[in-house]
Amino acid sequence: MMKTSDLILGSQDALIITDIQNDFLPGGALPVKDGDLIIPVINEYAKLFYQANAKIVASRDWHPLNHMSFTAQGGPWPPHCVKETKGAQFSLDLKLPEGTEVVSKATDPEKEAYSVLDGTGLNEKLKSAGITRIFIGGLATDYCIVNSVLDARKLGFDVVVLADAIRGINVNPGDVDKALETMTQNGAVMSTLDAFPEPETLTGVESPVEVTGDKPLVQHYVKKKARMRARGSYKQVRRERG
Ligand code: VGL
Ligand code: ZN
Description:
By secondary structure, the protein is an alpha/beta fold. The protein has a single domain (4-241), classed as Isochorismatase-like (Rossmann fold, 3-Layer(aba) Sandwich). The chain is built from 4 helices and 6 strands, in the order βαββαβαβαβ. It has helices at 39-51, 122-128, 141-154, 175-185, and strands at 13-18, 55-61, 101-105, 133-139, 158-167, 189-191. Strands 3-2-1-4-5-6 form a 6-stranded parallel β-sheet, sandwiched between helices. α1 links the parallel β1 (13-18) and β2. α3 (141-154) runs parallel beside α4 (175-185). The radius of gyration is 17 Å and the shape is globular. The protein starts with 12 loop residues before the first strand and ends in a 51-residue tail after the last strand. Zinc ion (ZN) binds at residues 61, 63, 69, 80-81, 106.
C-alpha cells in the first residue's frame, strides 16, 4: 500500500477506468461477480482525479460481432460487449467527468486485446500529455487489469492498482490472486481510497441533472476558486448512443 504523501495527484497522473460496461455487470452477458459494487468507489476516484486536474480515461471492450474471442469462432467467451449494443454501453451508474477520454479496445475481429494499451494509441496519448503515473481500477482483474498493468510497466509508467475498485472473473480459482501477485512482482503498487489525501472541499455540490435524448448527463461540482481551471465545473461526459 502507498503512503498518503505519495498520493498527491497532479496533471502527470492518469486514472484509467476499465470496462464498466453492462455486459460485465450483474445481468450482463459475461457478468463479473459483484462488479457493480466497485462503481460508487470508481465514481469517488473520478471526482478526486478530476479535482486534481489529472487525466481520466475510460476503456471499453468493443468487439465486432464475429470477434475471435467468442465461442462461435472457437474462443473462450460468450458474445459480449459487441460494439454499439446495450451490453457494450457504460453502466448508467458510472459518473464520468467531462473531458474523460474513451478508449475502445479489442476492435479487431482477428485479435484478442485485453490491455487498454494494446493497439489503442493510448500509450502515445498519455506520453504526449506528460503522464508518468497511472492509477487503474475496473473490470476484470484477471484480464484487462493485469494485462494493462504489465503493458504500462513495460512502457515505463509508474502504476498504482486501486485495490478497492477492481473485481475479477476467476475462471479458475486463484486467477485473481495470481493476477495480483503478478502485478506486484512487476512493480505495481496497491492502494485504496482511504489512503488518498482529503480532497478539496466542494463549494457547490448539486444533484446530477439528467437530460434525456441527445443531451449530456451533467454533474455540477464547483471546484474551489484556487483550483479553478478554464474548463470550470465538474461535468459528466455525454454517453455514446446505440
Ligand atoms: C475482458 C473477458 C473478456 C477484460 C475482455 O478486458 O477484462 N475479459 N473480454
Ligand atoms: Zn472481450
